[in-house]
């Protein structure tokens, strides 16, 4: 950028470096390598051999063990960060200072304070800060979001998510921080206005004495008397990935492990005829009716979610707008996780959750022009 | 009866009257009519036509609309009560005063105080007071109890129960009191020592504004860091009846809607080698291992659960012992439900649950001799 | 009928006697007892005690062990026959001679010749002869018939039916005659024009040496290159009741053991663009495309199939028309079963099946007036 | 082998070239590249660019478009052939003449005559000719083979295989040659003594007028009154991969699309007590009993099947023995497919199948010495 040659290139592709070559980095590298909007410019890891292995697996890309090499390269537009959560803040802030757009693996940061600083700095700099909430870009979740946005389910009554299996007990995080970010980021993505709960009650159990919760439940009241709930569990012998979203018009079941019918939309439910006068139980009971209609399972396109992540990141940069899973989405997820921590410390008491304060700086159109 | 012949008969069978001919009464009547230990002596209902219809359906039995007719009949040994919960206390107390053994539909009573009085009175009178926790006598639950008692699952780590479907919104009770008694009575039946939780957190939602919770979650810590959890829901378009019981040795899944494989026992799990010295996370992680063994699904006998209820009631009377789902089991279920009520009123805060005080009077052998 | 008294009665209810009080008779008795179009007049069985038990179970009905009592009663309009297949011909012929409308349990008769004689005699007499193909009156099969008739599936490409479980080995019939009548009568009911196959190849196996086939396969070519196939099996440890009906527009799967989604209609398939000129494989391949559309599961009403059988029998009598599962449907099923027998004797060679000759006598409007 | 240089090499690895870089070649290349017993020496394809792409994908391997380069290289011990079936004979014969061991993709050849010549030539040359029946090396099939060999199922009563989905209509082969080789090679692998049927009846349908069967059924009697059956279908909207193997002791169900429970072994069945005297149906019926025992699902190791193929190929070469899916297994599959063709031509008439004549030349120990 800044010289004639790069202008030509930029009309074609944005240039990105992947920071962190551990578990998730190779997936990012592969998708930025093959995504039509992107040029994968480098892989960066403190362990240069690890960086090299990832670079080889995608057909050969420059490697470095020095973050400065990446941040000081004027030809690099953006960085994708897949390092441990505790390092996100420092790396993201440095990248933003260097004028790079940033996509960062979930969770956005290891604390809400750190995350907020990152989001605000990105806003001030006019840069895109995107949370890599990969699940949101699966065909199933994109469809769910569309159905809800179109009013197909009606008003949301409840969201119940179960994510259980015999999982690896993580050395550094509990089952809430390991699994629930998926459920929370999906809820935030599909619910109109995002996941806006007024409190979080977290119930955890550590019956094997591993030092952290291996079984977890999150209960979160939503507006209008609705509720969201998550069951995350590392100790279940069977694997379940299921979310039920109940609405006044229809109810949707997403069974992610059933490739032949991932989404089912049931035209079944309870209709309450709201009567203005007379609120006695009997009167009310007389106005309850039950629908037992058809079930419909929409066809879903094939497609790797991370390809959608890469495309959205590029589009947000080019269009000078926030990403669909922007930094604020990441903050909302973090806020729930931190409230869950506090609830756990208080024995499961519901922990109030303040709505996020408006951020000082908004992304403005043209902000990507440096 | 009333002559020598009946003495002969009574050595063969116990005589019982069914009180209440509504939804559940016909089932009781049918099973006491056909059960080999019982003679069905009468059906009693304030609505004599309703009583008559039930009597006809089981081949003709005397009917009455006067409870006194039943309680004053010296040939009747026992009564089975299937009237609304709010009437249980008065009828049960009268029956006990009249020297009848009593079986009563769940919930035992509409309050813990009422229930406790009933249990104590039965003890004082040396009479059997049994809770009709029908599910406990299904082949599946009997097998679960046996497997746990034999140590086949090891120590219990968690119990997670889901009981959801598009259910009738009850006019008088919420989803906790309608559905959770099943889960709670089953847990009480299969867990060694019964369901003994130190607190109950209840999260309810009434998004349709029916005036009571239609969606409910119960979180209950168990001894040793374990947890029990119930999800009850009237608004789910799909029906699920599933309980997972995780143990240190094996984990059991009961899927009541899969008649071809109701019980599955998984030899899968996490093994933690407890090391006395060195509790650092790394050291601990080094001693975690995962088992991925076989799955086993025991064959279950056929059999209607209520037939088992009738048999157990007769056996308890004859043997002068408490029933396996005795009044105390009913009290433990009531205690959880009442704590759930209090938790709901406090916005989901965990509500402490005192262990039931020892009851003053114990059933003694010979108590059945009148 | 034919006299004033019966006219009065007919406006109210038709009168029927059930012949045979074994396995199926009680079901018939119950449904004719409760069906609004019927008056259950008598139960007839050679074993008068068995008749009496059935009569008691439906609230008391006259019984007899003499068929003549029934056939000579001028107030009885119709008989429902649930005796062994080998007795059908004699009883049905006698009933028709006596001017009774007849419904007869499947199979219609124990031979095509016998069945044909019955059908022709009913036609000559202007009486309804209905085959009790019960499955055809389930909500699922009625819906399938409707969908096909409406062209929703397009032209039928294949019908594949699997009916397997650990079944009782019957003393007198093989697995084809025990199970396949269900599949064949359903196919006959839902396929436009009935089940019209030009040949039947039957492959049976008797690996336990019971003296008859316990495992059976039927392959039946249909018009236009389509095929129907049945797999019937008494030795399967798992129970499957599934029929797939493939069409040019959509394909339907009926899974009778999945009460939550019995019918699924898939908008998936292969489209062949028919090109008039150029039939080379390459050219053809270029015109194949694949549809991967939505899945739809229609809601089905509740309802016992036999109630529908009773209603249809009454309607056919009143309207002077053939029943929807009339004698000819029974003959088509018999013709396939007899061809299967011949194929088995010839080691599985396909056995040609002539189209049924037109019957000499047609039911005419008004034929029911005697 | 037999000279100094190769002795050194052979203690380390066998050297192999992959011929054919189309659909299956990359999988072979990857597994021979990573398999510990193998050195991947070259990729050969007439389309050198295609060869190069495969070579790149496995980290760089010499490529050639000239088969002679491979066959004349004295350092290459073996070739893996993944070219169209019609070319197998010529390439395999040339490779054998050049002293190479050969593994060839299914089907072994495009005719039984061609296949037999290949097998005989390999025998004469003392070389291993292996059929790449990949499915046989999946953990599930290896377990099935072991269970049957250990007598766990008892005598085999039936094998029923269903392999249906919305499949690509192949330009050159029908559904029998496309899908059934999987079922047939698996049956051949797990049945003691291989798949030895005395006849094949094939029923095909081409309702879309594609010019070849898109729906197919194969019925094959086995010894002792047992039967094997295959249902292959390109037009099913749902995907099923299920094989049921019934035995006198137990019955096994393999559901390949259920990763949580691929294998289920049912201790359910029918027991016939064989009575020497008195063969009347009634007497026999009196000696039928039903078992309804437990279900057991063995844990299966993870592992890619092709890695097992590569290991078996190496072991057969080193040990101078036939491979477990050797050329003769390929011939038995071919024989069934050819008989199916003849049956189809004759309208589904069962086509007798002669047992394969003993082959003139047997692999002898030491035969691998060149």
TrEMBL record, chains A, B, C, D:
One Gene Ontology term of the molecular function aspect: nucleotide binding
Domain GFO/IDH/MocA-like oxidoreductase: 142-252
Gene3D superfamilies hit by this protein: Dihydrodipicolinate Reductase, domain 2, NAD(P)-binding Rossmann-like Domain
Domain of life: Bacteria
A Pfam family the protein falls into: GFO_IDH_MocA_C3
Sequence ranges assigned to domain Gfo/Idh/MocA-like oxidoreductase N-terminal in this UniProt record: 15-133
Coiled-coil annotated residue ranges, if any: none
Keywords: NAD
Name of this chain's protein: Predicted dehydrogenase
Source species: Microbacterium pygmaeum
Record lineage: Bacteria, Bacillati, Actinomycetota, Actinomycetes, Micrococcales
């Amino acid at each position: 950028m800044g010289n004639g040659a790069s202008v030509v290139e930029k009309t074609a592709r944005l240039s990105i470096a992947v920071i962190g070559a551990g578990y998730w980095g190779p997936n990012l590298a592969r998708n930025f390598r093959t995504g039509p909007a992107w040029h994968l410019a480098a892989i960066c890891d403190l362990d240069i051999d690890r960086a090299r292995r990832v670079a080889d697996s995608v057909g050969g890309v420059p490697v470095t063990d020095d973050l400065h090499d990446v941040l000081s390269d004027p030809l690099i537009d953006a960085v994708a960060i897949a390092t441990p959560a505790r390092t996100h803040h420092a790396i993201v802030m440095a990248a933003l200072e260097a004028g790079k757009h940033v996509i960062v693996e979930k969770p956005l940061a290891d604390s809400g304070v750190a995350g907020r600083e990152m989001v605000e700095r990105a806003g001030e700099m006019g840069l895109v800060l995107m949370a890599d909430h990969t699940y949101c870009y699966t065909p199933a979740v994109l469809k769910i979001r569309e159905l809800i946005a179109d009013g197909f389910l009606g008003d949301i009554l409840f969201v119940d998510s179960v994510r259980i299996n015999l999982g690896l007990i993580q050395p550094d995080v509990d089952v809430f921080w390991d699994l629930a970010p998926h459920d929370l980021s999906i809820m935030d993505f599909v619910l109109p206005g995002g996941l806006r709960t007024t409190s979080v009650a977290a119930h955890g159990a550590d019956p094997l004495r591993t030092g952290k919760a291996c079984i977890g439940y999150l209960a979160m009241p939503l507006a209008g008397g609705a509720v969201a709930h998550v069951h995350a569990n590392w100790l279940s012998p069977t694997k379940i990935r299921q979310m039920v979203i109940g609405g006044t018009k229809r109810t949707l079941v997403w069974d992610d492990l059933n490739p032949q019918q991932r989404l089912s939309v049931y035209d079944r439910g309870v209709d309450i005829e709201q009567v203005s006068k007379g609120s006695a139980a009997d009167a009310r009971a007389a106005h309850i009716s039950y629908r037992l209609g058809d079930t419909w399972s929409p066809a879903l396109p094939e497609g790797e979610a991370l390809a959608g992540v890469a495309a959205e990141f590029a589009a947000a940069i080019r269009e000078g707008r926030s990403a669909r899973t922007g930094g604020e989405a990441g903050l909302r997820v973090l806020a729930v996780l931190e409230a869950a921590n506090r609830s756990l410390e208080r024995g499961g008491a519901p922990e109030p959750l303040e709505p996020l304060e408006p951020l000082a700086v908004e992304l403005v159109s043209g902000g990507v022009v440096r």
